[in-house]
């Protein structure tokens, strides 16, 4: 009997490709990436890929968000769009991006150049969806980039799913928020004065996305940071292995009551609340102390 796998989708022509160039306003530092967009109604969500790129699992999440009433834009920041995310391919892409000055995967308290591009992309998405704020969802390697994008006023919801940069090779890096001090202060200010809210997800034993990072974000953002925790402890109810990592993609199963499926539903509820004015809150999200 074949065990069920995660939701996947192909890169179909419905995903419209366009090239986008941008950076922070007033800055000469700009970047250009292809972006794939699908959906024609509802607020915009910028979905950031996980290593090794826009995999069928990332597209499956994107199609789910489209079905939930969002216009989704996925920038192709690395890898070959649509290809299967094998371990070998992930390792090859990681070897390139981890030494890239665009991403600064090992740097502490870092202002990463890709963040300016993502803020410009969020502004562009908002301008093309008048009357709506924008959500940004980051996955794994790009989890913290969603936080950096939230400096942009058009972003009203940021989702950090298992944020893994900077790579947790030292205690200081495990506790690093994944953004510069200036960006973190700006996001904190926006949680106080604007309608911004930040949502984080991780598995309890995920060493790639360490608990110290979430502790830092909770301490710095206060009630502006909510957490959806998932257990990967021994004999956990979801049957997750000790190396479970990709909360919203590879670990999701379309089985009623499945914890990662429920977490994905909670993320949609969070986006609905922040971007559509819904009155519900994610069932399993809790403010940090």
Automatic annotation (TrEMBL):
Domain Dienelactone hydrolase: 39-160
Keyword Hydrolase: yes
Alphabetical list of InterPro entries matching this protein: AB_hydrolase_fold, Dienelactn_hydro
Chain positions covered by the region annotation Disordered: 1-31
GO molecular function: hydrolase activity
Residue stretches of biased makeup (Pro residues): 1-10
Keyword Protease among UniProt keywords: no
Pfam family, one: DLH
Keyword annotations from UniProtKB, A to Z: Hydrolase
Name this polypeptide is given: Dienelactone hydrolase
